[in-house]
C-alpha cells in the first residue's frame, strides 16, 4: 500500500497517493514536472519519491534530455514489477491478463470454453494459471490483487454478483472464491463499469468529465455513466444497464425479438450467425464483418446500426455526455462507418445535447476490460480512500 514506509500522517499519505496516481495515470514525469503537476514543493517531491521507491512502487531513471543547461531532473515511473491479475469471464471464453502498474500487459491468455463457466470453475482456472505465471513471466512480480470484470450487476458493497444472466450466475460470492483460489485480495465489478473506467482514464474518454459507455460482449450489452468525472453507481451499484432498455424501433420489420430488449436486437450472436461463425474474438468478428460482401450480412449490419443509433440518441438526450464510447462488437459496428452512425445519432438528438457530442470507439480495444479490472485492484491496494 501507499502507506508502507510513511509516517502514518494522513496528509502525507494523501500526498504519496497524489504522486503515485500522477505517474500511474499520466505517465512518467520528471521531479520538476511532478512539482508543477501536484503543486508540492521540490523538497517534498524528493522526499515522497524516495518513500515510494523504498516501498517498491516507483522507479527513477536518468532523463534522456540533452543539450539543456544544468542537471536534468530524474524521471519517475511506476514500478513495472507491481502487477494486478485481471479476469473477464464470458459465455464463450475466459480472458486473463497480468497488468503492470505502468500499464504494460505482461501476460495474457484467452481460454475458449465449450460449457458455461461456473463461479467456482472460474476461480479454479484463475488460480491454476496464476500459479503457472508465478513460475514464469511473473517470477519477480509483486502481485497486489485480482480484479474481475463480470457481465452482470455486481453489488457495490461486497462484490457479490447478483446476476450474470447469460452465465447463469445468481448471488455468486466471487470475491471470496477468488481469494481462496489465489490467496490474493479480489475486487469484482460490472464489466461495462470497469471498461468505462479504463476508457475514461486511459482511452477514448480521457479528459472528458461526462461520459456514456456501452460495452458489447458475448453476454449482451452493458453500460456505464460518468458524471462530472465520477462514475454513476446507483443505489446498489447497478446503474448503466442500457442493454435492458426497450429499444426504439421505427420499422416493425427491423424487430427480431417479440418484446425484446436492446441486447436482443443489437446482438453479437446475430452478427456471428450472419457471417457464418459459431464464435470469434473481437478481431476475428471485425475482420469477418469488414470483408463480408453478402446482401444478408450488409442488411443485418444496417439493421443493428439503425437500432443502436436510436439507443445512443436516447442516452445523449437523457445524459448530455461529452462523449459516447462504444466497446466490443458495438465498436466494430460503429467503425464500419463511424461518421454515418454519428449522423444517425445526431438526427435523433436534441440540438443542444448534440453540441460538442463526440462518438468514439474504445481506444483500448480488447484490453479495455482487463485494464479496468486491474485499475480496480490498484485503486483498492495502492491508493487510500479520499
UniProtKB/TrEMBL annotation:
Domain HTH marR-type: 18-68
Entry superkingdom: Bacteria
Gene3D superfamilies noted in UniProt: 3.30.420.40, Winged helix-like DNA-binding domain superfamily/Winged helix DNA-binding domain
InterPro entries for this protein: ATPase_NBD, HTH_MarR-typ, ROK, WH-like_DNA-bd_sf, WH_DNA-bd_sf
Family: Belongs to the ROK (NagC/XylR) family.
Protein name: ROK family transcriptional regulator
Organism of derivation: Microbacterium galbum
Amino acid at each position: 500500500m501507499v502507506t508502507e514506509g510513511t509516517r502514518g500522517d494522513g496528509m502525507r499519505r494523501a500526498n504519496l497517493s497524489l504522486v503515485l496516481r500522477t505517474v500511474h495515470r499520466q505517465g512518467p514525469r520528471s521531479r520538476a514536472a511532478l512539482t508543477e503537476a501536484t503543486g508540492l514543493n521540490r523538497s517534498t517531491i524528493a522526499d515522497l519519491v524516495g518513500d515510494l521507491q523504498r516501498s517498491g512502487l516507483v522507479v527513477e531513471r536518468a532523463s534522456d534530455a540533452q543539450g539543456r543547461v544544468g542537471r536534468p531532473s530524474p524521471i519517475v515511473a511506476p514500478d513495472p514489477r507491481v502487477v494486478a491479475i485481471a479476469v473477464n469471464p464470458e459465455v464463450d471464453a475466459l480472458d486473463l491478463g497480468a497488468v503492470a502498474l505502468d500499464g504494460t500487459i505482461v501476460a495474457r491468455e484467452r481460454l475458449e470454453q465449450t460449457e458455461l463457466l461456473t463461479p467456482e470453475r472460474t476461480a479454479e482456472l484463475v488460480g491454476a494459471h496464476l500459479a503457472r505465471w508465478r513460475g514464469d513471466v511473473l517470477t519477480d512480480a509483486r502481485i497486489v490483487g485480482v480484479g474481475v470484470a463480470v457481465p452482470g450487476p455486481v453489488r457495490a458493497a461486497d462484490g457479490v454478483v447478483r446476476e450474470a444472466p447469460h452465465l447463469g450466475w445468481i448471488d455468486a460470492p466471487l470475491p471470496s472464491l477468488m481469494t481462496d483460489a489465489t490467496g490474493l485480495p479480489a475486487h469484482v465489478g460490472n464489466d461495462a463499469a470497469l471498461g468505462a473506467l479504463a476508457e475514461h482514464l486511459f482511452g477514448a474518454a480521457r479528459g472528458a468529465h461526462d461520459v456514456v459507455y456501452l460495452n458489447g460482449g458475448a453476454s449482451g450489452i452493458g453500460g456505464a455513466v460518468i458524471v462530472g468525472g465520477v462514475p454513476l453507481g446507483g443505489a446498489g451499484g447497478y446503474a448503466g444497464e442500457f442493454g435492458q432498455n426497450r429499444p426504439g424501433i421505427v420499422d416493425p420489420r427491423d424487430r427480431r425479438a417479440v418484446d425484446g430488449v436492446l441486447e436482443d436486437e443489437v446482438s453479437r450472436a446475430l452478427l456471428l450467425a450472419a457471417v457464418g461463425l459459431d464464435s470469434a474474438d473481437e478481431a476475428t468478428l471485425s475482420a469477418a464483418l469488414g470483408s463480408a460482401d453478402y446482401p444478408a450480412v450488409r442488411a443485418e449490419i444496417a439493421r443493428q446500426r439503425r437500432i443502436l443509433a436510436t439507443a445512443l440518441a436516447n442516452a445523449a438526450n437523457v445524459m448530455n455526455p461529452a462523449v459516447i464510447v462504444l466497446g466490443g462488437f458495438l465498436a466494430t459496428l460503429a467503425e464500419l462507418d463511424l461518421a454515418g452512425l454519428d449522423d444517425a445519432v445526431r438526427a435523433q438528438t436534441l440540438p443542444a445535447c448534440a453540441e460538442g457530442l463526440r462518438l468514439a470507439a474504445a481506444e483500448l480495444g480488447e484490453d479495455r476490460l482487463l485494464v479496468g479490472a486491474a485499475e480496480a485492484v490498484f485503486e483498492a491496494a495502492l491508493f487510500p480512500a479520499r
